[in-house]
Amino acid sequence: MVTSRNAQLIKEADAKAEQGDYLWAINLYEAALDGTPQSAEIHYKLALLYDDKINDPLHALHHFKRYLTLNGSGKHAEEVRDFIKRDEIALATSLSGDSVITRTEAARLRNENLNLRKQLDERTNRAHAVAADKSPADQPDSDKKKKKTSGRTYIVQEGDTLSSISRKFYKTSTRRQDILDANENKIDDPDNLKPGQKLNIPRE
């Protein structure tokens, strides 16, 4: 059972995270950890802060794994397992100069990146071709509007960030810029989304 002191620490940490004071939020969350299954949710919040805000996959991995240890069948368990796989690859790639991964794995990752880049280039070329065919040169705004309105609609929830929304739809936080580009006229502050706001989520 979460004690009143822990509940207060978590509340203060949530507020600091929302204000953008991520390091202070991390300190408060860590102070609320007590090793019980109820701490799993705190480990989840810590992992997301390290992943999305601090860009520290090593610490994010630690807290994701602690979440699974404490609550392996929890509501975030499936996505946490996906996040662990991606963070392990990101960490291994960043440290590949120290031979943390094998040459075979490094080659596979390079090929995967090349394929993704090729797909992105092809998609960009198709989009440009469609824009050239359908939109006159003097109507760039209508073309932009079509691109932004295509896709899905998502209602911002309390505590959402562009990175967390990217995770929900694409299983990775790296598509946050795509979401921002598709909603540049709706988002005043990318680091402070407003609950209830409707966002366009581009198709994959």
Overview of this protein structure:
The chain has three domains: 4-96, Serine Threonine Protein Phosphatase 5, Tetratricopeptide repeat (Alpha Horseshoe); 102-134; 148-204, LysM domain (Membrane-bound Lytic Murein Transglycosylase D, Chain A, Roll). The protein is globular and about 65 Å long. It has 204 residues and is mainly alpha-helical. A two-stranded antiparallel ribbon has the order 1-2. Helix 4 runs antiparallel to helix 5 and helix 8 packs across helix 9. 64% of the residues lie in helices and 4% in strands.
The DSSP helix count reads 9
| E-strand count | 2
Give the CATH superfamily of the largest domain.
Answer: Tetratricopeptide repeat domain
Give the strand content.
under 5%
Report the top-level CATH class of the largest domain: Mainly Alpha
Helix-and-strand structural type: mainly alpha
Query: What's the story with the biggest beta sheet?
Result: 2 strands, antiparallel
Topology:
Layout: H1 4-19, H2 22-32, H3 40-53, H4 57-70, H5 77-94, H6 103-134, H7 140-149, E1 152-155, H8 162-170, H9 176-182, E2 198-201
Antiparallel strand pairs: 1-2
Helix pairs in contact: 1-2, 2-3, 3-4, 4-5, 8-9
